[in-house]
């Protein structure tokens, strides 16, 4: 039903031609100040897409986002100490 996606951070030298990155995936955010683009691509085509984006003349560097691999469910192993500090 849903396709697996992977995030990419693309550092660019100019944002005007960076609008063409929509051909490779979904552009989520473009930073005008720091000149980077956050985009999502299909996970199966990640390596080919990274290689094709890196060849573009206005692209400085392409990084993979590891946000989907970070653990977001936390266990509470530490006991609650707030009851010791109340009067």
Automatic annotation (TrEMBL):
The keyword Cytoplasm applies. It comes from the Bacteria. It is found in: Cytoplasm. The keyword Cytoplasm applies. Keywords: Cytoplasm. Pfam families: DUF2129. Belongs to the UPF0298 family. This is UPF0298 protein ACFQ03_00510. It comes from Paenibacillus residui. The lineage of its organism: Bacteria, Bacillati, Bacillota, Bacilli, Bacillales.
């Amino acid at each position: 039903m849903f396709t697996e996606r992977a995030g990419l951070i693309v550092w660019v030298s100019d944002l005007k031609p960076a609008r063409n990155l929509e051909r490779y995936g979904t552009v989520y955010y473009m930073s005008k100040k720091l000149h980077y683009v956050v985009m999502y691509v299909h996970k199966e085509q990640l390596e080919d897409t990274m290689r094709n984006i890196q060849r573009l003349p206005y692209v400085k560097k392409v990084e993979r986002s590891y946000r989907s691999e970070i653990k977001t469910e936390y266990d509470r192993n530490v006991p609650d100490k707030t009851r010791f500090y109340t009067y």
